[in-house]
Fold these 2 entries.
Entry 1:
Amino acid sequence: MLADLHTHSTFSDGSLSPNELIDLASDHWVSALAITDHDEAGAFLAVKEYADKKGIELIAGVELSIECPLSTGGHVHLVGLFIDAQNEALRIALYDLKTARHDRALKMIEKLTAVGLRLDADELCSAAGNGCIGRPHIALMLKQKGLVSSLGEAFKKYLGRDGPAYVPKKKLPFLQAAEIIHQAGGIAILAHPISLRFPTYESLGKEILRLKSLGLDGLEVYCPGSDGYFRDWLLQFANEQQLLVSGGSDFHGKAKPDIQLGRGYGDLFVPLEIVDGLKQSWRKRRETWDVGRDP
Ligand code: AMP
Ligand code: MN
Ligand code: MN
Ligand code: MN
């Protein structure tokens, strides 16, 4: 059996509903699953009962984007695991991010109109449903209307950082994001460390230690797109620096069709034992934090 501690549902830019994600986990031998939607933690509450019924251990999560002018041009995402999805401070912060995403989507529609591509704002919002609107929703709508032939083309021509319809999204400073996760009783994990784009292990290690001093608890050691050498380095670094070890596929369904749940590009294997390690550490902290609930 496998673990997958980084996945997206229709509560953000994934194409499967939380229920469908649980069914897929069951079919793919994934017995411990974290749903880590962008800026949104609602999927856990929506599907916890169903996950229990199907015998899947569901972990409440969220993925936050960090405001960081990295000289490498890379980006930092922070995954919160074992969070209390109903925590007041978390809910306020996520509501704020979700509202900002809605306003950003309207601005992107205006920019698309300026280059001759018309999308209806109401249609976009209803396509996103309860979820957090992101560029993949816009890309999908452009494709459905025949205005681009693929999601990749939508990003390349219009929605990517250098595209005419790009609007930056609201992000949080690292310290604040880690604090929000901790306030909600969770642990803060650096998502897909490869995306920081540091050219050497040494420079990446330095940055990870800086983030640790700001509240980082652990690393996604197991994630798609990293070769065995990088994974082994991350594992050793995490062990040496007392950082927790996590991992997941970053599954999005149709929005990233090459990535399979629990399997990434086919060669990912997230050992189930890491979930026990994370839970043990989470329990120890719970004693210190006195958040008074079970993982
Ligand atoms: P946003 O959070 O709205 O800025 O959108 C970022 C999301 O878009 C990422 O989490 C990916 O899921 C998706 N994405 C980014 N670049 C691409 C791309 N080139 N093709 C398809 N999806 C992408
Ligand atoms: Mn995404
Ligand atoms: Mn990410
Ligand atoms: Mn993700």
Entry 2:
Amino acid sequence: MSKVCSELYRNFFYKINGMTFEMSEFVSWVSEAIRDIAAVLNIGMCKETFTAPKTPFNVNGVNQSVVFYTSEEGYEDCPQTFNFRTGEGGGLEMVFCPKKSHIWNEEELEDIKFIAENLFIIGGRVQMLSVMKRVSITDIGTGTSNMNGLFMHCQQLVNKKLFQNYDAVFINLKNFKFINRIVGERQADIILKSYARRLLSFVERDECIARPGGDNFCALIEKKRINEFLGFISNVVFEAELGGEKQKVTVNARAGVYEIKEDDTVNDAINASSTALNTAKITGRCDVLWFESDMLDRTIKANTISNIFPEALKNEEFVVYYQPKVSLDSNTLCGCEALTRWVKDGIVVSPADFIPVLEREGTICRLDFYTLDKVCADLKRWIENGLQPVRVSTNFSKLHLHNSDFADEIISTVKKYGIDPSYIEVELTESSGYEDYEALAEFVRKMKSYGISTSIDDFGTGYSSLNLLKDLDVDIIKLDKSFLDNLGDEKKTDEVVIRNIVNMVNELDMQVVAEGVETNVQADLLENFKCSMAQGYLFDKPLPCSEFEERLKGSKTYINLRN
Ligand code: C2E
Ligand code: CA
Ligand code: CA
């Protein structure tokens, strides 16, 4: 270092040696510092190009050039180039040119080299600090922000009073467990990363994507772009390898959305979007749900339900109703479904209000066995009283499939009451897909070998295909009510679908029960399609036990309701 320049250098390093995590801040310090020494060292131009490879913390990598200084008088095109390698496989190239009409002597060249080396060292430290910061706010699995990053980002917008220009979105992938199972964990991870990259490709300046964990994502999106974003998150098709072949995998998402207001805190926004998502999950009604204030009441109600459930079960507050099933060709009672009601302080609470809560908590399993117990007790009493019972189906949550004793517990309950197993039918819903396919198949086999029938409930609302069903050996398919809603319309689409399902099911030697039959038009069409049984308000609503006993005692015919 030349003695003449020593004070100048001291100032130079003083300027660039501050503490920062931001490369952009460092760049502005360097620009200013070089401007100050340019005249003494006859610098006409100084720039650097920084490259870094893609890493989990920097999904796109870096390739960035910055011109720190250009003299107004121009510069000679005889660059001095210095190349440095960085640890993670990237590099830094620094280029200096002398000012117009100047050629650097040996001593000046030594000084330029010294400046370049020190810029590399100090810049490297800033680079490291900025990587550390990025690590602390990045989700390693996908390269999005983590929740820490999202909170920091949002807080900056709150401070600038810009937060209310955005909406908060909480996203959960709908069928990810299923995908995991089908394509395997390694490919599912790749799909999750690709999905994250798709979300990141949407965001513009000051929007943010974060991953709280698992198959969940949070997003902060400008209000004017929110609808476009919500259309962007579902129906995303990826390719995966299955058994050596490329297969298309579609990822769908559920989202809770919260419209951020002026005085909202970051926590308010994230919690509200999460509440909306939970409500969407519980009700299953639609995939995108905007937050409404009564959702919080419902959450509180849900908490109350789970708190008082054990006591209510002990007090036998749950009562079984029976809804008749009718044979469509003979119009006679041929079976029934047990549906549970909660009689709380004299008020009958519908299952829609408590089943989803218990299902989420897992306590539904206790209720299901309680119901089976009551059904067996009723059957035993009917038989003892000389009534001719019909087969009773009871609903079991698919959560039971995780319990390896599920089948044995059903069998031992039925044995305990000495009931002929042919009077019992177990309904399992298919709506959550076939994650538990093998457990389900094993369960169905065990039921069949003991003589208990099985049925697939809400058929047509989930991922089932008749192909899978034919290997399952279930006895009955319960066609979801949604198929019937447009039956008899001008458009015959549903008719074609139902006719084909019924045909195929009949050919596979199973039976179809149509659920939610409300009109004679529906009943007539179903009868024409050779659908064997129907259940719905046209015939009977779910009846309290004593009323259902009257049906068992009577002629069991519904002919007068058909016209
Ligand atoms: P689900 O098994 O699909 O039962 C049929 C539902 O449709 C019943 O509602 C029934 O009242 C209703 N329904 C029957 N016919 C008609 C009709 O013609 N029109 C209309 N609009 N609806 C009709 P419910 O009793 O409110 O039960 C709702 C759901 O709660 C059931 O749906 C079932 O999934 C669940 N559930 C009820 N009891 C139990 C139980 O003990 N265990 C489990 N795991 N789930 C239960
Ligand atoms: Ca059912
Ligand atoms: Ca059903």
